């Protein structure tokens, strides 16, 4: 009897050992498969990352080189149109001159849109670093040039366009003169487009406690719903409902680019409005460096 029990015990032990061995081998095999799968996925991920990096570099290079390929022929076209309109090649019939004038304005608008798109791409690629060409600027002179640029546009709509300078001269600032000129043109041009009567006034104020200058562009235009204010200038192609109704061809690129430029200078841009039909105020605060 003890011999039988011993044989049964031995058989059970052997049977359990076999079962344990089977599951151990199976678990080891599955672990090996999981490791191989993980290694395969890691290799694929590295390859995908390298491919993405190459594509990103190619995209960035294309965008940056496009500045030359797009701007150069447009500059030539604009130059030739100006010479023709100045009648450097002979007298033009009035009808032809009128049509060429419209063509010239359209080409200038096209160049502006291309430059805005390329600038946005540069800011996104370089995160605003190494883009600005800073120089010492007298703010009053910069603003006077902006006002002179846009006065004919305001006059066409019978709108006033004024600027209020502080009594004391403002400190000089280190700015990218060309890009900040574009920012103020965008803000005031926006006000002109969205104002049917009244006008636009620009205020400048030196904030001594912050050592910064506050620019306020106040218009008597269509206004902005309060719920839309936080999104102003946050994304390209994002525009308020009323703005779309009044200027359906606008794309909202100018405000977005203006915000990028202002932030690259260490400043901030925001808008305030009491609501529809109550006008709006766009603020820019820039540190004096």
Automatic annotation (TrEMBL):
Q: Name one GO molecular function term.
A: phosphorelay sensor kinase activity
Organism name:
Candidatus Nealsonbacteria bacterium CG18_big_fil_WC_8_21_14_2_50_37_10
Record flagged with keyword Transmembrane: yes
Chain ranges of the Histidine kinase domain? 65-289
SMART domains in the record, alphabetically? HATPase_c, HisKA
What this protein is called in its record is histidine kinase
**The keyword Membrane belongs to this UniProt entry's keyword annotation:** yes
Alphabetical keyword list: Coiled coil, Membrane, Phosphoprotein, Transmembrane, Transmembrane helix
Source species, domain of life: Bacteria
Q: Any coiled-coil ranges, and where?
A: 26-53
Q: What class of enzyme is it?
A: transferase
Q: Which PROSITE patterns has this protein been placed in?
A: HIS_KIN (PS50109)
Q: What is its EC number?
A: 2.7.13.3
Name the reaction it catalyses.
ATP + protein L-histidine = ADP + protein N-phospho-L-histidine
Q: Transmembrane region positions? A: 6-25
Question: Which Pfam families is this protein grouped with?
Answer: HATPase_c (PF02518), HisKA (PF00512)
